[in-house]
Amino acid sequence: MLAIDSAEQSNTGGRTRNEDFCGSWQNAQVACWCLSDGAGGHGSGDVASRLVVRYVLESFAAQPVVSAERIVELLEGAHAALMDAKSVEGADNMHATCSILLINRTESLVSWGHVGDSRIYLFRNGQLAFQTRDHSLVQTMIDAGYGDTAMIRTHPQRSLLTSAIGNSGELQVSVSGAPAPLAVGDVFLMCTDGWWEYVEEGLMQSALSESVNLQDWLTRMATVVMQTAEKGHDNFTGVAIAVRDDEDSPTTVMLPPGA
């Protein structure tokens, strides 16, 4: 059976309120990590992200199945729950991103999915092997040939989402498909746009090779954000998950949900 280590780091950045939230749930066989970046008027973004993460974790704990279909159910359920919560006065514009990573230890399988622009990266053998594609206006423009990938971090409208939990209209969900096999040494990074906007993929990879553990990796990247971000920059949150053989020593201490 594989062993899983994880660490997380969240920062208010240049804002007065942290509207990012993350957490995890696991038992002896399976594990779930969830990350959300909330937004909305009257400070309701933090309410949105917490509602989404708690809904996902509680729902997964009630039916801990690792599959693409289960991720779709969790994302659609979170969307319905947030739409219900928007009846609260002053929360009409409340919405959130959501990224979910599910691991089956006993079968060495992983599934992931997301809505919005909070990303999931997979590093295998120390190299970037996969990253999710944002549900954003700028990503749509790039896909249509109206610019290159550099726009994703520089365009004035880079924060406009084409799909989000709690938005009206059809919910666009992206999932990884059938559960994929895990390999010892696989490392995942889940992060909000306030994180990846200032930490390019090459830097993520080089920082990973230089780090002694997951927390060190996150700290190195967070330092880059603090050194390069503009005044008043967004909250930023990163969650790192590493796969190892159960007989190997852990790479870091497991953190509690929402720490």
TrEMBL record:
Domain PPM-type phosphatase per the UniProt entry, residue ranges: 3-243
Q: Where is the signal peptide?
A: none
Q: Which InterPro entries match?
A: PPM-type-like_dom_sf, PPM-type_phosphatase-like_dom
**Domain of life, per lineage:** Bacteria
SMART domains the record matches = PP2C_SIG, PP2Cc
SUPFAM superfamilies (UniProt xref): PP2C-like
Entries under Pfam families matching the protein: PP2C_2 (PF13672)
Q: What is this protein called?
A: Protein phosphatase 2C domain-containing protein
**What lineage is on file?**
Bacteria, Pseudomonadati, Pseudomonadota, Betaproteobacteria, Rhodocyclales
